[in-house]
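Lecture 7, part B: from sequences to assemblies.

Below are the input chains for today's worked example.
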Amino acid sequence: MSGSDIRDVTLVEAVNMAIAWEMEHDENVVVLGEDIATNGGVFRATVGLKDRFGFKRVMDTPLAENLIAGTAIGMATQGLRPVAEFQFMGFIYSAMEQIVSHASRMRNRTRGRLSCPLVYRAPFGGGIHAPEHHSESTEALFAHIPGLRVVIPSSPQRAYGLLLAAIRNPDPVVFLEPKRIYRAVTQSVENNGEALPLDTCFTLREGSDVTLISWGASIMETLEAADALAEQGMSAEVIDLGTISPLDRETLLCSVTKTGRAVIVHEACRNGGVGAEVAASIAEGAYLELKAPVIRVTGYDTVMPYYRNEQAYLPQTDDIVEAAKRVIAL
Amino acid sequence: MKYFKLPDLGEGLPEAEIVEWHVQVGDTVDVDQVLVSVETAKAIVEVPSPEAGTVAKRFGEPGDIIHTGEPLMAYEGEGDDSGTVVGELKRADAQTRKDSFIVGAAESSKRARANRASYRTRSLPDAEPLRGTRRTMAKNMAASHAQVVPVSIFEDVDIGDWHAGTDITMRLVQGMASACETSPVMNSWFDGETLSRRLKDEVHIGIAVDTPEGLFVPVLRDVNHRTMEDLRTGLQNLHDAVATRKIPPAEMQGATITLSNFGTMTGQYASPIVSPPQVAIIGAGSIREKVVVHKGKPAVRRVLPLSVTFDHRAATGGEASRFLGALIEALGKP
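Predicted structure of the full complex, as structure tokens:
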């Protein structure tokens, strides 16, 4: 590959870089969404793309999420590789009909005659002092739908590699971007078009006493918790799910077999969350290796509050440290 | 530390077992100096150093299995996998650094899972894991058993007219090459997933070789276009390479049909296992003297028992039977 270069980028810049790379190298890749072309997107994820690739491949749509989702399906079944943006995950529900009833089952319905290689991007999660509908973490809704892949990056490098993989994937991917850490860290990322594998977890920290499992923005607090535990003489392994559906159970089971303990951290509310699936998988696959119950540190079973209370809602580093100490002490 | 990850040793083999380290921690190594011998499913491979440096760490001891892409060794100094990153990463900002993480589970976690007590108690007590060729054989045989629809046909061939000192293996491979012309489908590759096949022009015969470490199947190539002398030398070279375990993986790929000649040991007939994508395998048993009808009279003749197993998804019984007939005709000549 020519033109590879190393750039210091934030997570949102890595998203932009991945889309641009793939548009450059695959003329079938198009992007669409509200204000994504001329304006560059609400979080600037698509900034500059219209100037580089033109309005025929970078399309502003009406304020109609169901239309965005459905148009992308039509494009995908006819050979394009659309990357559609929803401005916020809280706006995606009017598009559920298209996503759940059509995109996810196109391959199955047509017995493999049509596939639906598209990416639905949406910023998700709270912590940016946003109004209602702008802080949702409802990834579990999509993880429950057969035929959808749900991918969540938690660093610039993984955003770049996983988004490339998502665009190249032959089936629909819901790609949820943790907007709280869109600009939290800068990393050196080589713009070389190299994808990371989907359907696998990533081990961010190796440890032996407890496995901390998380995804999205909560990875930040989880890593901080691992640091805090290390200072107190406890060794935590940190696993980023990366793809929350389908789940890479093998990596989780390997880790928990080693540590005997698991703490699951997610920002979404607890009831019926992806953490429950992770916990059940660990119980089914590593019951005899567990030294303590699998426990969860999560948001509350309530609507994500307005910004004054959002830190009270979001799992904090200390909560994770306390939970880990509890299972280690058992 | 700069990590050197186990590179793909060819043919996408997913793992290798460390046989012997040739360097110690602290040693200074040059480019291309041999670091370690590893045993893949196919052969022992010597892994050279991709760069000059000082050995900081070795991952794994003899007997450990390393997967492709996992750290094998580390050099002193900063940097990433010398095999994959070009140049040193420059950082303008002290806070900016390259992300580092493991795709999937950490090695320590995988080991823990593989060695877990509950797993051991539920499997054979005091079992030793299969390694190398024996492990490959177990996997390949199970894969074949799961896919192939095997049918076997047995017949004797009267070789009483052979001259003294006839090379049995050479006659067999030449006979197979000529029988493949009668039934070309027996010399083809078949894909059960897509239900498609490729008839092969050349006849590349896999020769099953029994060793204490397990089954090896080196490939004798282009049998139909080579002289017997040339083939004999080729076969001897393959046998020598197997015996010293220095056979390159490429020499065991690409067979279009296989010969299992167990006649030097014991047994007349067998139903050997077809190795996909191949369609057929020929078994040759022990030659013995038998009372047979020869020119209308009972006679004691030397007889070679043959078995043909074929994948009935790819070939018909008639095609296999005609193949066997042609093979017998070729072998029956003096």
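Note for the exam: The two ends of chain A are 53 Å apart (CA to CA). Keep this in mind when comparing with the next example.
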